[in-house]
Design brief:
The chain is an all-alpha fold. It is built from 16 helices and two strands. The chain has a domain of 129 residues: Serine Threonine Protein Phosphatase 5, Tetratricopeptide repeat (Alpha Horseshoe), CATH 1.25.40.
Length: 335
Amino acid sequence: MNIVQTAFFLTLALVTSANTAVGAEASGSGVFPRPREIGTFTKPLKMDPNLESGLKFMEGDGVPQDFSKALPLIKKSAEQSNVEAQFYLAYIYLHGQGSTTLPIQTDLGYAWLQNAAFEGHVKAQYCMGRLLSDGVTGLSGKVKVAQDYEAAKKWFSTAADRGDHEARQALDLINSTGMGVTDTFKKGKAAHLRQKYTEALKLLTSVAMIDHSEAQFMVGAMYSFGYGVPQNNQEAKKWYLKSIESGEEILSELNLGYLYLSGEGFPADLTEAYYWFGRAGANGLKAGEHMRQEISSGWKAALFYRMTSEQVAEAERRLTEWKNTKKRLIFKVDY
């Protein structure tokens, strides 16, 4: 196993050994689908001054990101029957921001989400399906939202009939497996840990089709290693890019860097490797920043990875362009 393969293995271990709290009140990471940029849930946004100001605090747009300041502004808009505000208010209550700063309040979040869904908000309808198919349990073990596949299917069907891709995929998943997104993902992850790779790949791919970024990352990593499928780095690259598009999956950014560094399956490209390592580092993954610095200065484990000054300049230009144009995420999931 070479050093790049070793790095892949360690990256995969981060996600396969982590305790995933989806469907649990201890973490909001599974209550909604992986967070997207402001404005991609429903277009166009029905804006008013309170919602606009609240969203600026949610995404840190021109002000420090502060959910406690966003909450009263968005709540005021929601109470004035702004359905878009009701959706984002539900998001805040269901995710929280720390146990003391802004604790998770599942009951309030569910109520506001349900209201938005009944008012016709398509993503709220999809998220109602996710909540009901996953169920939510509090830290005390008390059931906050009971798992109800039949009710979930109704919400998924309603959203799917209005063109929501994820709802259609989630509905098909329940009909084909008898499980929701989270249960299918957990089963696929457990199969992977037992080294039942063929079973794991089938289950994880079915979830990855619903734009589940962690499942997409794991499918990409399985193609990188050839777990349950012939090794195919082109296919791995495809799934890593899907994972990043679905939720800025930083482990996928890191592994894309390793793919371009190794040159296995397609030509090595140090500029691309630097760019993806830089993105992972900018999004908070120390390993990404470490690798960005290593290949620009001459990797001591393999000096032939040394970049030219022109390559570094081009990669930095692309990183700067990305940082200046990317939309901030509402909520980052840390691994």
